[in-house]
Design a protein that fits this description.
alpha/beta, 2-enoyl-CoA Hydratase, Chain A, domain 1, four-stranded mixed beta sheet
């Protein structure tokens, strides 16, 4: 299938989703917000891959939300005195939030590879991923303050899981750029690489390593980590106990141990397909 904002390639259990509008600095136009969850849902629900890598093209990873959307799509009614304005804005922002949340709620890990600048909505995007990697020249900026608004599509609830509150406040209040080395030191980036080629090579290697593991166990890890982040220790302990009580498969465990002992690739079952609620 052909998309406006993305190219998709699936090979050896790894789905590579590439933002493909470098001439527009990969700005997040209206099609971006419908295509992304559609792609993620297709890969996840049809068990087409075991890992997703999200990368980009050109000198800028993502310029953030296309400003034209504020005039055409985000606000609904354009007159602030129109009672439909606030309700329309709210519903549209919830739609954008749900689009990026598809990365967090899908069953398989999502790794992002950031080159160059990552502005505004791009930060919302990568913070919804499981892991983040960057080039030495990459940076993030919570840019919304520079255009007179508060970031609202996902940055704040998620970036606080990686950075101290004071640092997040500084970035939000000033809009300053945080370079790759500082992103790694803060815990936002897992690793930093010299250039785009080295970045993609390393991220793909990590993705292939994850894809070689039992998919149900990887899904369990993703689910348990996200649940633990958002709940008390007591609730999280009970949740993982119930998960393993329900989902632990002795044959998959045996295959994992045997394949490790025999130094061969494991032969694991893919996740079951899902009947989409989207019809």
């Amino acid at each position: 299938m052909t998309y406006t904002c993305f190219d998709v390639n699936i090979e050896d259990g790894v789905a590579h989703i590439v933002m493909n509008r470098p001439e527009k600095r990969n700005a997040m136009i209206a099609e971006f917000w419908t295509e992304l969850p559609q792609i993620i849902r297709d890969i996840d629900e049809n068990a087409k891959a075991r890992v997703i890598v999200l990368s980009s093209t050109g000198p800028v990873f993502c310029a953030g939300i296309d400003v034209g959307m504020f005039q055409n799509d985000i606000g609904g009614a354009q007159d602030k005195n129109d009672p439909q304005y606030g309700a329309g804005f709210y519903l549209n922002v919830k739609r954008l939030q749900a689009s990026l949340s598809s990365l967090e709620t899908c069953r398989i890990p999502v790794l992002s590879a950031v080159q160059g600048g990552c502005y505004g909505g791009g930060v919302d995007l990568i913070t919804a991923c499981d892991m983040r990697y960057g080039t030495e020249d990459s940076f993030i900026t919570i840019y919304e303050i520079n255009v007179g608004m508060t970031a609202d599509v996902g940055t704040f609830p998620r970036i606080l899981n990686h950075m101290p509150e004071g640092v997040v406040r500084e970035l939000a209040y000033t809009g300053r750029k945080m370079g790759a080395a500082e992103c790694k030191d803060s815990g936002l980036f897992n690793e930093v690489y010299a250039d785009h080629d080295a970045l993609l090579e390393a991220v793909m290697k990590t993705a292939q390593e994850i894809a070689s593991k039992p998919p149900l166990a990887v899904y369990g890890c993703k689910r348990a980590i996200t649940y633990s982040r958002d709940h008390s220790t007591t609730d999280a302990l009970d949740n993982i106990a119930v998960w393993n009580m329900s989902m632990l498969i002795p044959s998959e465990m045996k295959e994992a141990m045997m394949s490790n002992h025999q130094k061969r690739a494991g032969q694991f079952k893919d996740l079951p397909t899902v009947k989409s609620s989207q019809g």
